[in-house]
Task: structure prediction
Amino acid sequence: MREKLLILFVALTCSNVSGWYDSSDEEDLASLRGLGDRIRAEVAESLRPMHIQLRQQREELAGLGDRISQQVYDSLEPVRALELNMKMKNGVGGVTVATVQPSGREFLIKNYRRYTCSTKLDQTRGTCSGQLTQFTITKSSPKTEWCYVNNYSQVNNRVCLSYNGAVSIEAFNNQVNCFTNDGSPVLNIAIEDYKKLCSEVRKSTEYRYVPDLNDKNHVEIPNENKHVKCENQDKDLCIFREDNSVLSFYGGSVIINNVA
Result:
């Protein structure tokens, strides 16, 4: 009898132990399989828009420096155009034929020096078939010769002119003095007197710039700078006009070492 009871107890015990793994525990274990991979995939998916945005920002920042440099370069185009126009007016890297109106006087300008030709200048090639003479002004020169001078300074109601480079000016107690570094002649004249002297001699000037393609300082014509204006469409010839700005002056301003 005791043996039968022992066998029955063991059988019931084994039956209960095997029941612990057959149902809910195995389902729980199964649900945990791959949980780490699923969490990692869900996190990666949630972060994907942020990664895309960061990549776009990196791409934008990568070209930001180049865009800023280009914007600065473009904004300075008008300033570079002023320099290029000044070079053309003064025959830098080529030669310039300047025709003054209404007098009709012609000058050949090369590297800031102004010359007159004993014959008529070739307007297209910028050459003189006769004798070239450097333009100078002496005490015996007609006073109207000063109307052809480009370099000037202005203080209040007076203008100082120099035919040979920059002109400096001093003003103290309504007294105005003009001078140049090399001691060349200058003209100190009231603005109204200048207008009377020059209004019928030099109102405007036509410039024809012919670049020397072998000179590294020449200005390219046509020029990539859109602010370099030429009336014509010819290659290697730029025609432009400028008014005599001194004629439009009035008293009260200060202008130092400018070019008319």
Observations:
- DSSP finds six helices and 14 strands in the chain.
